[in-house]
User: Fold this.
Amino acid sequence: QSVLTQPPSASGTPGQRVTISCSGSSSNIGSNTVNWYQQLPGTAPKLLIYSNNQRPSGVPDRFSGSKSGTSASLAISGLQSEDEADYYCAAWDDSLNGPCVVFGGGTKLTVL
Amino acid sequence: QVQLVQSGAEVKKPGASVKVSCKASGYTFTSYYMHWVRQAPGQGLEWMGIINPSGGSTSYAQKFQGRVTMTRDTSTSTVYMELSSLRSEDTAVYYCARDGGSACNIWGQGTMVTVSS
Assistant:
């Protein structure tokens, strides 16, 4: 069971806008920034969004991130077939056992 | 270009140890922390720990304390992750990932470790 909670699946049709949620707590999302990773089948994860809402160079502006309190969201507008992938949120957690990185369980996005 | 190249796939018996390497190139090795993350077949991402290549300091996830050791060799710009007392549940792809300051912005290609008798 993951520390951050994501819906296991999401779907949309080409051109549509979809959002993926990520819920945490005061020790992780509530006090640290959120990052999002995209993992295409059979490949290593790729950084999609960092520091809640920043896009690395090369990431299309169709992808956007936001954070409010202990939750975060990833939005994908103008959905394309190549967006079909697994998406993970992540954040540092100020655990009593020492800081650690926690991930969401991942959301499988299907483009219908 | 900036890249991380990991060692090849491994097959180990239960109780054995495995050491995975991650060779960095294209940047100043000692300037960026390195994470290790694993992914069991069909499962999500799991953080194992982090190493500072500059001084060698480490921080491990509680789950792996006592079983994992992360080291580095600055002469070859390589970080290592050794996991001991392997069990079947450790079968996974192991990734190294460079911390760009806010997130893991460069990932290795992954190393498949299979634990089977």
In short: The mean pLDDT of chain B is 97. Residues 97 and 107 of chain B are 4 Å apart (CA to CA). The interface with chain A takes residues 35, 37, 44-47, 50, 59, 61-62, 95, 97, 100, 102-105, 107-110 of chain B (CB under 8 Å). DSSP finds no helices and eleven strands in chain B.
